[in-house]
């Protein structure tokens, strides 16, 4: 699979470090997850996943507690989960997941972010078929062989496992997220550099320098939108 998840997360975290954007996005996502079920991660698997992601991004406890308390307090605020698909320069592919309380505003904003940066919106299904819904975990202090043995003992078949300079990245079926997490925790591993459900491109697309610069501007414009939670793409930005 080849995605360098630690590097990708660090780049995004660095970009968000000087703003409150990432806190606001997690606050909204935690609120929605808590609102849809019990506001207790032990009985609400969706909330448990979001909280694990928040932990890897060092989201302050106050932000988490505020969002959960808002859900407990019976807030009537509601959000729709919408996915947009589109194309960027040189046929690059992009998926945009949103949480919105104003569908018309969000659709207009996402369309504009594509259009002003050399891209265009696609119809539902035009891009998603080239991505796989995947559980991704990153840990430090273990080798790939050691992690593979842990997963085999837990009777978990992984999609892939990669050893990087600072740790191991594990790829699994999305419905095995909690099984993989529990297998790690049973082995005394409770800290993850990555722990999330994502849309992973089946193939990565390299772009020439000018197209890559335009593509990055488009991704920045999409991620800057208030209603956008996640942006996935198939472009290799590691070069």
Structure write-up:
Belongs to the TACO1 family. YeeN subfamily. Pfam families: TACO1_YebC_N (PF20772), Transcrip_reg (PF01709). Keywords: Cytoplasm, DNA-binding, Transcription, Transcription regulation. One of its GO terms (biological process) is regulation of DNA-templated transcription. InterPro entries: Integrase-like_N (IPR017856), TACO1_YebC-like_2nd/3rd_dom (IPR048300), TACO1_YebC_N (IPR049083), Transcrip_reg_TACO1-like (IPR002876), Transcrip_reg_TACO1-like_dom3 (IPR026564), Transcrip_reg_TACO1_YeeN (IPR026562), YebC-like (IPR029072). With 239 residues, this protein is an alpha+beta fold. It folds into three domains: 68 residues, Arc Repressor Mutant, subunit A (Orthogonal Bundle), CATH 1.10.10; 76 residues, Alpha-Beta Plaits, CATH 3.30.70.980; 72 residues, YebC, transcriptional regulation domain (Alpha-Beta Plaits, 2-Layer Sandwich), CATH 3.30.70. 42% of the residues lie in helices and 22% in strands. It has eight helices and eight strands. The strands form two sheets. Strands 3-1-2-8 form a four-stranded antiparallel β-sheet. A four-stranded antiparallel β-sheet has the order 5-6-4-7, sandwiched between helices. A hairpin with a 2-residue loop joins strand 5 and strand 6. It is globular, with a radius of gyration of 18 Å. The mean pLDDT is 89.
């Amino acid at each position: 699979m080849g995605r360098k998840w630690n590097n990708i997360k660090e780049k995004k975290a660095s970009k968000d470090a000087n703003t409150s954007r990432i806190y606001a996005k997690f606050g909204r996502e935690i609120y929605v997850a808590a609102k849809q079920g019990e506001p207790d991660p032990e009985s609400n698997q969706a909330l448990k996943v979001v909280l694990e992601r928040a932990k890897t991004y060092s989201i302050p406890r106050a932000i988490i507690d505020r969002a959960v308390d808002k859900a407990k307090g019976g807030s009537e605020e509601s959000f729709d989960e919408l996915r947009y698909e589109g194309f960027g320069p040189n046929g690059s592919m992009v998926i945009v997941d949103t949480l919105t309380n104003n569908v018309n505003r969000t659709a207009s904003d996402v369309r504009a972010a594509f259009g002003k940066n050399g891209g265009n919106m696609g119809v539902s299904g035009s891009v998603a078929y080239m991505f796989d819904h995947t559980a991704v975990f990153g840990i430090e202090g273990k080798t790939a062989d050691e992690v593979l043995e842990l997963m085999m003992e837990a009777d978990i078949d992984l999609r892939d496992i990669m050893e990087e300079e600072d740790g191991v990245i594990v790829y699994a079926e999305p419905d095995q997220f909690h099984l993989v997490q529990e297998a790690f925790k049973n082995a005394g591993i409770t800290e993850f550099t990555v722990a999330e459900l994502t849309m992973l491109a089946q193939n990565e697309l390299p772009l020439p320098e000018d197209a890559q610069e335009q593509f990055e501007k488009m991704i920045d414009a999409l991620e800057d939108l208030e209603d956008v939670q996640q942006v996935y793409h198939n472009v290799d930005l590691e070069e």
